[in-house]
Specification:
The structure is a homodimer of 183-residue chains.
Chain A (H helix, E strand, L loop, with lengths): L1 H21 L5 H4 L6 E2 L2 E3 L9 E9 L13 E6 L1 H10 L7 E11 L6 E16 L7 E5 L7 E2 L5 H10 L15
Antiparallel strand pairs in A: 1-2, 2-8, 3-4, 4-5, 5-6, 6-7
């Protein structure tokens, strides 16, 4: 019995080592598929979202009614989707409860040698998120993550988010029409 | 001994199940950290790169000497880095052997309701890669993956890739100066 105990322990330790070796350290979000961690209505910061699949990038998008008056091309948007939701959407074309999308906004930086034209992502100026969860009216809520400094965030109190996403977003409040990977 | 065999087998099977359960199915590249698979000088297609960390996006970049003459803003570039190399670079600021970067190129698509301005990623027109490996002169090689249709690809025979990357890229032939996550 003693010897068997040693064998079992060895196998368990070996098994744990194998698991530890094959799972990169990608933060909590990896192990839970990046589904939202909520406390009441507050969203806990989606640690590790930088490694989630990027579903789309864009530049200069505006849904303002005001005429666009600016010198440059506008800001870059980069949109991430929680891995579990990405898998579910590619398989079933639906977003599961807890789906989180994170949008980073970068100022455009003008090209530098060897580039003769164009823009790349300069200073990051905002990190925002949207979450699918039944506790929110309309099934989704939007959050401002204070350019990555928020440990938690309350939903943005804006009827306009809900109204616009409901009217224009192609799939379940998500603008999949703008995201190559999800079209 | 027979009973011990059963116990060990059970533990192994359980261990394997646990491993299978916690590792999402992300293709071969996940389990090998996305490091390049080479056969001689040929690069085997980096399956699953779509889930790798995106290190930068850009629009309209050109390193052509010819004057830029076009109607739109130019194409989108989106650059992925193999996960093992991403981890290594964030820790040690160096790229390990086998590092792969993949660049997707998308035509710009003009904004559509509810957007009043800007561009998002339209049709994908190219998938390219660069790989760090000692077997290549200069330590790196570049590949055209035929917009995702190539099962394998020979290096692009261009001295200009090497010369330009050597002169202008900030870190070990990689344009980290354009990638927010690596700056």
């Amino acid at each position: 019995v003693f010897f068997r105990g040693i064998v079992v322990t060895l196998v368990l330790v070996l098994g744990a080592s194998v698991i530890a070796a094959v799972i990169p350290d990608e933060g909590l979000t990896r192990r839970d598929g990046g589904l939202a961690r909520l406390e009441g209505q507050a969203l806990l910061y989606p640690e590790g979202y930088e490694r989630w699949p990027v579903v789309g990038a864009a530049i200069g998008l505006s849904y303002s009614d005001r005429p666009v008056t600016r010198d440059g091309p506008g800001n870059f948007h980069r949109v991430y989707l929680s891995p579990a939701a990405y898998d579910a959407f590619l398989t079933a074309r639906t977003f599961p409860e807890g789906t989180t999308l994170v949008m980073e906004i970068y100022e455009p930086a003008a090209s530098a040698p060897p580039l003769r034209a164009g823009f790349y992502e300069g200073r990051r100026v905002a990190v925002e998120a949207s979450v699918k969860d039944r506790r929110f009216r309309g099934g989704w809520a939007w959050f401002d993550l204070d350019n990555g400094k928020a440990e938690r965030a309350a939903p943005v109190a804006s009827e306009s988010c809900l109204a616009c996403h409901r009217e224009h977003a192609a799939t379940d409040m998500v603008f999949t029409q703008f995201y190559p990977r999800l079209r």
